[in-house]
Each structure stands twice: as C-alpha cells, then as structure tokens.
Amino acid sequence: MLVSEAVARRKSVRSFTSEPVDDDTIRRLLEAAARAPSGGNVQPWRIYVVNGDTMTRFREFIADRPIEAGEYDIYPPKLWEPYRTNRFTIGEQMYATLGIDRDDKEGRMRQFARNDEFFGAPAALFCFIDRRMGPPQWSDLGMFLQTFMLLAQEAGIDTCPQEYWSVRHGAVREFVAAPEEELLFCGMAIGHADWDAPVNTLVSERMPLDEWARFV
C-alpha cells in the first residue's frame, strides 16, 4: 500500500466487528510507529495496551465509573470560526448517519457512551505523557499516533483515536497502573471496521487548501 493510499483510507471508525487483533500484531505496529519524528529523540509517548480478557475486564471496570473533569481542554473555550463550524458540521453529519435528531439528547448520549466500549473494538491503547513535558513533546504524540494509524491501515486494521478518555483519566490510570506523573492524552480503538454500520459511511470534509495555506 502506498502511503498516500493509507492516508486516504484512514478514518475514525465508530463501529467495529468482534474479529480479534492479536498482541503480536499490535506490538509490531507499535515498534514500527516508534520511528515517528521526535524532537531531540525524546520519544515521550507511554503506551498501555488492553486486549482480549483485559479488554473484557476493563469494560466491566469502567462501566460504573463517573465522568471526570478533564485534565486538559479538548477544545479551546468558545471555539471561533472557522473551527467552530468545522466541529459542528462533523458532529451533525455523524448523528445524521445514525438517524439521531438534533433534539434527541438521549440518543446522542447513548452514542457518546459508546466511547466507553471503544465502539465495539476488541483492542485498544492508551497514550500517556509525562506531565513535565511541553507542547513540542505533545506534538510528538500526534506524529507517533498518526504513524501507528497509517501502519495499521497497511496491515488491514482500523482505528479510532479518542480524546474522550481524558475525562476518564483517573479510572484509566488506576486500571493500567500508570504512575501519577503520567497524564493521559487519549485512547485509541483498534480492530476491524463494521462496514455495514451506517456511521462508517461518513467521510469528514476538509477545508480547501487556499483557506489555510499561503505560498509566500
């Protein structure tokens, strides 16, 4: 698979089949993804994988845990244009594919709660970072995670990065036994997409190049 093909095919899958992904495959993908760029070769990512029986135990563990205050803002307060419209549009498009009306708050909450199940994925990872790290090292996390997702596409595996887990940070830290000095950035569902699920037909839009790039 060409890199360009992997980039085009990668998407945030929100409904997975139960087909398993073995630990050895995830291990190979993680080792290969560690070649992602890292300023000063710091390599700040700290990864915890849940799979198989551990995933079953985690789902049981998280079921009774309340939502927590996030340790960071997923979006800036009072998001401005054009970013507000971009975020609003993808949300409305996603709920439309699910047949959930704007006024159906209960339906939207049920879909939101599916984050706790990794949308049915059989495996997942959690990405932590030392609290003392700064924005450049957070940038490294993004490059590492994107590299992992593209390599997963090459291997025929689908993913969904989930910053949602930042509001479950205490429970996740307890379950995976991460030290207090590590901050949870995100989780990521890992598995095989259920292409019969309407939500997986959604393809997010991107702004035209001329709206965000200028050749000086």
Structure report:
The protein has 216 residues and is of the alpha+beta class. It has one domain (3-72, 117-203): NADH Oxidase (3-Layer(aba) Sandwich), CATH 3.40.109. Helix content is 39%, strand content 13%. The chain has eight helices and four strands. It has helices at 3-9, 23-33, 53-62, 83-97, 105-113, 135-154, 169-176, 209-212, and strands spanning 46-51, 123-130, 158-162, 182-191. A four-stranded antiparallel beta sheet has the order 1-2-4-3, with helices on both faces. Helix 2 (23-33) packs across helix 6 (135-154). The longest helix has 20 residues, at 135-154. The model has no long low-confidence stretch (mean pLDDT 96).
Low-confidence stretches: none
Strand content: 5-15%
**Helix and strand element order:** HHEHHHEHEHEH
State the name of the first-level CATH class: Alpha Beta
Compute the number of strand runs. Answer: 4
Structurally, the number of domains stands at 1
Task: State the helix count.
Answer: 8
Largest beta-sheet details: 4 strands, antiparallel
Instruction: Give the CATH superfamily.
Output: NADH Oxidase
Q: For the largest beta sheet, what order do the strands appear in spatially?
A: 1-2-4-3
**Integer-rounded radius of gyration:** 18 Å
Distance between the termini: 34 Å
Shape descriptor reads: globular
Into which percent range does the helicity of residues fall?
A: 25-40%
> What is the CATH-assigned architecture?
3-Layer(aba) Sandwich
CATH names the topology as: NADH Oxidase
